[in-house]
Amino acid sequence: MKALITGGAGFTGKRLINELLARGDKVKVLDKNMANLAEIKSPSVELVEGGIEDREKVKLAVKDAEVIYHLAETFSSDPYEVVNVDIKGIVNLLEAAVANKAKHFLFASTHRVYGKPRYAPMDEEHPLHPEESRRPLYSLSKLTREQIGLTYWREHELPFTVLRWWYSIDPTQPMQGKVLKAMIDNALKGEVIKLPDKGGGDFILNEDTVRGFLTATLNEKGFGQVFNITSGAYLTWLDLAKVVLEMTASSSRLETIPADKWQGDPSITMDTTLPFECSLDISKAKRLLGYKPTYSAQEVRHMLRDSTGKLVELRKQG
Question: What's the pTM value of the predicted model, to 2 decimals?
Answer without folding.
Answer: 0.95
